[in-house]
From TrEMBL:
Gene3D superfamilies: Glycogen Phosphorylase B (3.40.50.2000). PANTHER family: GLUCOSYL/GLUCURONOSYL TRANSFERASES, UDP-GLYCOSYLTRANSFERASE 76F1-RELATED. One of its GO terms (cellular component) is cytoplasm. CDD domains: GT1_Gtf-like. This is UDP-glucuronosyl/UDP-glucosyltransferase. It comes from Helianthus annuus (Common sunflower). GO terms for molecular function: quercetin 3-O-glucosyltransferase activity; quercetin 7-O-glucosyltransferase activity. Belongs to the UDP-glycosyltransferase family. The keyword Cell inner membrane does not apply. Coiled coil: none annotated. InterPro entries: UDP_glucos_trans (IPR002213).
Length: 443
């Protein structure tokens, strides 16, 4: 590193799937000699004691924990967050500028205030994207699909391929539950208002080559695919907002190899009681051991698992374990896990690919339907799940036992092998990281 002293100001959004990659990135950049300041909202704040070498600056956001984001309130939540954090962030950068360090702002795309403040103060900014790169062409084309009258999608078109987005079908497009106006507002928040100096993308070159090329062509700035960040550099401790129930690891230790279905629908999704009950019956009837994460409050109208009928709870305990939050990466790396029933959030997808675990896909919103299509159709390491007890039972059997499951396991192992190469010395993600460090030093 040059004589000059460098301070990177990283701004993560208060969502689990965005905060964890940002902390991994910060840990990596610190290991390369950069000083790190993490500017974060008060809601879902990271624990500074885990990162004694970083400076943590809370930005007053006037949000309470009852304001937690959901798909329904995403636009309003992000606007409030950005409006409230902006003035404090500007004061922070002005203070740091007085210290005569070279400053680069690295921010989550949802924390767009950070990019606009950086520009205002004449500082370079880089965006970290924590969703799949394949989301970009979709978001880019949606306004055009509206103009051409192809959205909202008619029922008869749902199974058809969107020609410009092959292999995605109309049913894989995000925001199906939103109005046109809400869709355009959401895209406006997700897409950068102004081209940054570069993009860092938590993905891998071999997984999404075409989307990465399109992003580069569109913005004409460097794009660094450096994922999966959790495999590049471990953080000193868990990055979870919720406490991890580690007792599930000793439970997994007692299960047969590749026998367990791990079920987790991420940190945001809220699920109807009816769907959750079908999930429970499907699991109970499948005859496979299962580990099911049910986040408190994630089943609409219930604090935790009160929606389960008494008899079903007893039946489920014979073969299964339900926890409130799991050490997911450790669970997926456990030899007893044979399948991951997931909502296909991008972090969960990357974590499954990294451990070679085939997936049962139950996507809800945002990029999840896109990721699910890639998992099942392009990478061929998973099946789409239709949430009905009989269908679930069948899907679990398809993935965990039987010939089709063997083929998916084989595909998943191949992908895991490629991920290992990408994150190893001279692999594509490591090369991208080297280029990123050089790029920052050139700013
Ligand atoms: N996660 C976890 N324990 C759980 C459930 C989820 O640690 O019990 C983590 C998971 O490993 C992933 C993140 O929460 O890193 C969820 O991010 P993702 O992008 O998959 O979905 P989102 O929560 O954003 O919908």
């Amino acid at each position: 590193m040059a004589e000059q002293s460098w301070r990177l100001v990283l701004t993560a959004s208060p969502l689990q799937g965005h905060m964890s990659p940002m902390l991994h990135l910060a840990t990596f950049l610190h290991s390369k000699g950069f000083s790190i300041t993490i500017a974060h909202s008060e809601l879902n704040r990271p624990d500074p004691s885990n990162y004694p070498a970083f400076t943590f600056i809370p930005l007053p956001d006037n949000l309470s924990s009852s304001n937690t984001p959901s798909f329904a309130n995403a636009v309003q939540f992000m606007q409030t967050l950005n409006d409230n954090c902006r003035p404090h962030f500007q004061e922070l950068l002005v203070q740091i500028q007085k210290q005569k360090e070279s400053i680069v702002v690295i921010h989550d795309n949802l924390m767009y205030f950070a990019g606009s403040v950086a520009t205002h103060l004449g500082l370079p900014s880089i965006i970290l994207r924590t969703s799949s790169a394949s989301t970009f062409p979709v978001l880019k084309i949606i306004p055009q699909l509206h103009q051409q009258g192809r959205l909202p999608v008619q029922d008869c078109m749902l199974q058809e391929i969107v020609t410009e987005l092959d292999p995605l079908r109309y049913k894989d497009l995000p925001f199906s539950g939103l109005t046109v106006q809400q869709t355009l507002e959401t895209i406006n928040i997700i897409m950068p208002k102004k081209t940054p100096s570069a993009f860092i993308w938590n993905t891998l070159e071999f997984l999404e080559p075409s989307a990465l090329t399109q992003i580069h062509h569109h913005y004409q700035v460097p794009v660094f695919p450096i994922g999966p960040l959790h495999k590049i550099i471990p953080t000193p401790s868990s990055t979870s907002f919720l406490e991890e129930d580690t007792s599930c690891i000793s439970w997994l230790d007692k299960q047969a190899p590749k026998s367990v279905v791990y079920v987790s629908l991420g940190s945001i999704a809220n699920i109807d009681e009816k769907i959750s009950t079908e999930m429970a019956w499907g699991l109970a009837n499948s005859n496979q051991p299962f580990l099911w994460v049910i986040r408190p409050g994630s089943v609409k109208g219930f604090e935790w698992i009160e929606f389960l009928p008494e008899g079903l709870v007893t039946e489920m305990k014979v073969r299964g374990l339900i926890v409130k939050w799991a050490p997911q990466k450790e669970v997926l790396a456990h030899s007893a896990v044979g399948g991951f029933w997931s909502h296909c959030g991008w972090n969960s997808t990357l974590e499954s690919l990294s451990e070679g675990v085939p997936m049962l896909c139950q996507p809800f919103e945002l990029d999840q339907k896109i990721n699910s299509r890639y998992v099942c159709f392009v990478w061929k390491m998973g099946v789409e799940i239709f949430v009905e007890r009989g269908e679930i039972e069948g899907a679990i059997r398809r993935v965990l036992v039987g010939k089709e499951g063997e083929e998916m396991k084989q595909k998943a192992k191949e992908i895991q092998g490629k991920v290992k190469v990408a994150v190893s010395h001279r692999g594509s993600s490591q090369n991208s990281l080297k280029k990123l460090v050089d790029f920052i030093l050139s700013l």
